[in-house]
């Protein structure tokens, strides 16, 4: 079960990725695999809920005072490279 203390999205995602790697390696016992899978499903739920909440906040924040949704676009350069930060045009 997910701890009562709040786990951040990033922590939940990191732990979920670690669990997936362990399960993919196939080195866990059946019992440990089941426990890891259960924990992974709990973390997936946490991540999904956080993403839904974030989407709702973004939608709320992108509403104009009149109640209309403000259209926004994010454009990234086609030739992005990891060493070069992406240039974005917001709104």
What does this protein look like?
It is a single chain. The protein is mainly α. The chain has a single domain (9-90), classed as Orthogonal Bundle (Helix Hairpins). 54% of the residues lie in helices and 7% in strands. A two-stranded antiparallel sheet has the order 1-2. Helix 1 runs antiparallel to helix 2 (30-61). The chain is rod-shaped and about 60 Å long. 4% of the residues are buried. Residues 84-91 have low confidence and may be disordered.
The poorly predicted ranges are 84-91
Question: Kindly state the mean pLDDT as a whole number?
Answer: 81
Radius of gyration: 19 Å
Q: Helix proportion of residues, in percent?
A: 40-55%
Estimate what percentage of residues fall within beta strands: 5-15%
The assigned structural class equals mainly alpha
Number of domains: 1
- The CATH class name reads Mainly Alpha
> What does the main sheet amount to?
2 strands, antiparallel
Q: What is the third-level CATH name, the topology? A: Helix Hairpins
End-to-end Cα distance: 41 Å
* Number of strand elements: 2
Shape: rod-shaped
The helix-strand sequence is HHEE
Examine the secondary-structure arrangement and name the CATH architecture: Orthogonal Bundle
Strand order of the largest sheet: 1-2
Tally of DSSP helical segments? 2
Biased composition (Basic and acidic residues): 77-91
Subcellular location: Cytoplasm
GO molecular function: exodeoxyribonuclease VII activity
Catalytic activity: Exonucleolytic cleavage in either 5'- to 3'- or 3'- to 5'-direction to yield nucleoside 5'-phosphates
């Amino acid at each position: 079960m997910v701890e009562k203390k709040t786990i951040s999205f990033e922590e939940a995602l990191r732990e979920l990725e670690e669990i997936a790697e362990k399960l993919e390696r196939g080195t866990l016992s059946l019992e440990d695999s089941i426990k890891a899978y259960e924990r992974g499903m709990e973390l997936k739920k946490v991540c999904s809920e956080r993403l839904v909440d974030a989407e709702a906040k973004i939608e709320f924040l992108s509403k104009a005072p009149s109640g209309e949704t403000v259209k926004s676009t994010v454009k990234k350069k086609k030739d992005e490279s990891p060493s070069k930060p992406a240039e974005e045009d917001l709104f």
